Amino acid sequence: MSIANVLLVDDEAEFVETFSERLELRDLEISKAFNGEEALQVLETNRTIELVILDVKMPGMDGIETLAEIKKRYPLVEVIMLSGHADVESAIEGMKQGAFDYLMKPCDIDQMIVKVTEAAAKKRQHEEKIIQARIKEITSRHA
Question: What tens digit of pLDDT does each residue of 19-60 get?
Fold first, then answer.
């Protein structure tokens, strides 16, 4: 089993291709999108995605708008924001809106793997709590 099922979203195609390869070599399952709208379409069709690595600056729907929509539609999906140096304020705004964390570009691959592992673990813990609460609710009805 891979460490996590990740959606990488960035409008820079070369970055997406290169970074995807590097992440796949470290046992991550990667889906790709090149803008916010495409990211939402991928999430709609692939319900196994656990977290999104999301660029802040993109044309059209930017990272902050995409984050808000992801959190509205898929509240358990974790999001790691990717930010250039000029985008630190946006990354902080992303944290306020529910992003798991943010990393500066270019980011260290080992640091990214640590963040992805932590984010996937958090998502799985939330899912497990929900399952346990549902089991408790069902079993208490029959008591």
Answer: 999 999 999 999 999 999 999 999 999 999 999 999 998 999
- pTM for the model: 0.90
Q: Cα-Cα-Cα-Cα dihedral of 80, 10, 40, 90, to 10°?
A: 50
Single out the residue of 21, 22, 15 nearest to residue 58, CA to CA. 15
Count CB neighbours of 93 within 10 A: 18
| b (16+ CB within 10 A) / e for 120-129 | beebeeeeee
Q: For the structural domain made of 5-141, what CATH number should be given?
A: 3.40.50.2300
Nearest to 115 by CA among 64, 91, 68, 79: 79
Give the pLDDT confidence score for residue 1 in this predicted structure. 60
Integer Cα distance of 3 and 93 in angstroms: 28
